[in-house]
Amino acid sequence: MLPANRKKLAAIVVLLLTGLALGLWWWRVPVPGVGIVLPRDTYTPRRQVFRPHRGQIFDRKDSLLASTGPRYLLLLPQRKWLDSARLNRLLGWPDSAFEYRARDLRRRELPAQLALTAAEADTLRRHRRTWPGLTVREYSARNYTVHIAAPVLGYAYNNAQPFLYQAQRLARGRFYRLRNGGLETYYNALLTGHRGAYHPLVDVLNQRHGTWAADTVYQPGQDLHLSLDTELQAYAERIMGERKGYIVALEPATGEILCYVSAPTYDPAVLTASGRGRERGALLLNPDMPLLNRPALQANPPGSVFKLVNAAVALQLGAITPLAAFRCDQSLINCVHEHPSARNLTQALKYSCNPYFYRVLQAVVEQIPDSLAQPVDTCAVRHQNLAAWARQLKSFGLDTLLGVDLPREQPGFVPLPAYYDHRYGRCGWTYRTIYSLSIGQGEINLTGLQTANVLAIVANRGWYVTPHFVRAVGSSGVPLPRFQVKHHTLVDSANFAALIPGMVAALGHGGTAELASLADVGISVAGKTGTVQNDEGDDHATFAGFAPANQPRIVVAVYIENAGFGGLSAAPCAALLMEKYLRGKIAPKRKRWENWLRCGNLAEQGH
Question: Does residue 33 have a pLDDT over 50?
Answer without folding.
Answer: no
